[in-house]
Design a protein that fits this description.
alpha+beta; Immunoglobulin-like; 2 domains; three-stranded mixed beta sheet; 5 helices; elongated
């Protein structure tokens, strides 16, 4: 629904997405940035928007949507006897300054990069019923940690996504399922079966590729 623009709402939407997936509804999205309460001039909202945008790259549907503050009053309160409603402030990716635009543009390019992978996941959801967003226990049910870690998930079989869900957070813990090698976006490879602390600068969230997968998030040479 039209959720509030806050990190609390972001965390709730993260949980909702995984529950919807396991309920058999793979075609799911969220209002990037929340729907109500975000002021386009507020740096705190900018951070929330960027973190939400980064996560949305790895959701089934990616949609920037919301009623932004401050409200814009119509030139006429009444027109032809009909009351005119206020509108929200601009909400295009270029509405938040050059720095934020650059960050969101990089997300859009990344989404295009994984489009074939997402297409394949949608096909699997249609033909086999597999969710697009998958809790860790979906593929690693024998590992106790997969039932305990609730702030990361798998996009399909091959991408492990660890969103940043708190304001000011610039690093986070990520659990890597055992039995796999996991490759970070910078090409560094990690042995599964461990919890690692990774950097989470405002420019990106931690995402890992399962070794041997067909999707590659590393920047081209």
């Amino acid at each position: 629904g039209d959720v509030h623009s806050s990190f609390h709402a972001l965390r709730n939407q993260f949980t909702a997405g995984l529950n919807m997936a396991m309920a058999g509804i793979p075609w799911w999205t969220t209002d990037i940035g929340g729907f109500q309460g975000g002021n386009i001039h507020d740096p705190a909202f900018h951070e929330l928007l960027i973190r939400w945008f980064q996560w949305a790259v790895f959701c089934p549907v990616m949609r920037l949507h919301g009623y932004r503050e401050p409200q814009i009053a119509p030139e006429e309160a009444w027109r032809d006897g009909i009351a005119q409603c206020n509108s929200g402030s601009p909400n295009e990716v270029w509405s938040y300054g050059e720095e934020n635009y650059a960050l969101m543009k990089s997300c859009l390019l990344q989404r295009e990069q994984i489009r074939p992978y997402i297409d394949g996941l949608m096909r699997e959801a249609h033909e086999l019923g597999d969710p697009v967003m998958r809790p860790l226990f979906y593929h690693y049910p024998q590992q106790p940690e997969s039932w305990q870690v609730e702030d990361q998930y798998l996009l399909g079989r091959d991408l492990l996504v660890a969103p940043v869900l708190h304001a000011g957070q610039r690093e986070r813990e990520v659990w890597l399922p055992a039995g796999e090698q996991w490759i970070a976006r910078n090409g560094e490879c990690y042995q599964g079966g461990q919890c690692i602390s990774v950097a989470a600068p405002l420019s990106e969230i931690p995402v890992f590729m399962r070794e041997g997968s067909q999707v590659d998030l590393r920047a081209p040479d």
